[in-house]
Design brief:
With 409 residues, this protein is α+β, with helices and mostly antiparallel strands. 33% of the residues lie in helices and 35% in strands.
Length: 409
């Protein structure tokens, strides 16, 4: 009985194994006969890629200043108004300072008096020089006679002549000192006169550079305080801006700072005028603003016809990266773009997928450069890669992009 039960169990296990094998064979046969997944693909071609950074920029005057008065006074004449174009050194306004004429007259009188003192000191020097010559000659003669014929000339006369000679020499030195002092006082008087004259010249307010008057603060009769300090509260006369050359200022994001250099070319799209001009980066602040994480960059833009006005906006098209002979593919041909492990799904001639790691380069809005991992002529899967695995057989179908005809070479 026991033996019969054992035989029945063996037969049951054998039957189960046979049934299982039959089911697996049927499944395997069904898998082998399943059609490959259809996937869109594109070839890897040589293209020209460039990454342009479009930034909003603003025009400002090349230089702008509030023209202040150096001396206090009343506006006697103001010759300009807003919108007037002036040249460097051109008279803008004249101040009336009545006491300035008195100061000039006083300084002139001081110069005349000092010059008269110089003349008097020079005459005194001449007299002292003549007296010294006479005293020295008398002493020399008496001394020679006394030495040649002792006793002929009393020694007292020789001593008196010697004393007169020393006295005349001292007077000569004093006269020289007096002349030097008078000449120095004359120089001081002339310098003071020049100072007063310089202050008087400041009553004529002139343009420091060529430009256009953008604001007028004062009118005839206005009282103007002297603007003698950078933080003064004195009212300016006019504001002057140089508009024949403008600064185009735009913020470069911190991610592109390392790719921007002085001399780099860019296109400037003048939206309001409907035209585009070419420019070059003139200067960089070389400092990142912590509040915006940007670096201010400037381009000098000539404006000889005055069509550009400070305050206008423009678009700066800055090329931060470019490759004229790159292996380019659409962005959706790369999985994990922007990560540290981008991958591409390469379809071989046997229609089998091979997943490879790639290194990317220049990236535009539609394409990306592949620097390593694939070769020209390889076929890559585009679109969604979910469900695809390495070694899977697929049915590749070429996908078409609007940019293909424009970029393929």
């Amino acid at each position: 009985m026991t033996r019969a039960l054992s035989v029945l169990r063996v037969q049951a296990v054998t039957s189960a194994i046979v049934v299982g094998a039959a089911c697996y064979g049927a499944a395997a046969s069904q898998s082998d006969t399943r059609p490959p997944v259809t996937v869109p693909v594109v070839p890897v071609n040589r293209v020209a890629l460039s990454n342009d950074l479009v930034l909003t920029a603003e025009f400002t005057p090349y230089q702008e200043v509030d023209v202040m008065a150096k001396v206090a006074g009343y506006i006697k004449i103001i010759r300009v108004d807003i919108g007037d174009h002036v040249r460097a050194g051109e008279l803008l306004a004249t101040l009336e300072v009545p006491e300035m004429q008195n100061d000039l007259a006083k300084a002139g009188a001081a110069v005349n008096a000092a010059q008269a003192d110089v003349a008097a000191a020079r005459d005194g020097l001449n007299r002292a020089s003549a007296s010294f010559d006479l005293a020295q000659l008398s002493y020399t003669r008496l001394a020679e006679v006394s030495n040649r014929e002792p006793g002929l000339v009393p020694q007292q006369d020789v001593d008196v002549a010697h004393a007169h000679d020393l006295e005349a020499e001292a007077q000569l030195a004093s006269a020289k000192s007096a002349l030097t002092a008078a000449e120095e006082r004359a120089k001081e008087a002339v310098a003071d006169q020049q100072r007063v004259q310089t202050m008087a010249d400041y009553t004529a307010i002139r343009a420091p550079f060529s430009g256009v008057i953008t604001k007028r603060y004062a009118n005839t009769g206005s009282m103007i305080q002297a603007g003698t300090a950078s933080q003064t509260q004195a009212m300016p006369v006019v504001r002057l801006a140089q508009n024949n050359l403008l600064r185009l200022t735009f913020p470069v994001p911190v991610s592109a700072v390392g790719q921007v250099h002085i001399g780099d070319s860019l296109d400037i799209d003048l939206v309001t005028l409907g035209r585009t001009i070419r420019g070059h980066i003139t200067r960089l602040t070389e400092s990142i603003q912590t509040s915006t994480r940007t670096m201010d960059t400037e381009v000098d833009v000539p404006n000889p016809d005055g069509r550009l006005v400070p305050g206008m906006y423009a678009e700066a098209h800055l090329r931060v990266a470019a490759s004229s002979d790159a292996l380019g593919v659409p962005l959706d041909a790369i999985e994990g773009l922007g990560t540290t492990t981008p991958r591409a799904y390469v379809v071989g001639r046997d229609h089998v997928i091979r997943v490879v790691a790639v290194q990317t380069g220049v990236q535009t809005s539609a394409q990306v450069e592949i620097r390593s991992g694939v070769q020209e002529g390889d076929t890559l899967v585009v679109g969604r890669h979910a469900g695809l695995v390495d070694g899977e057989r697929v049915d590749p179908r070429t996908a078409r992009y609007e940019s293909d005809a424009a970029t393929h070479r």
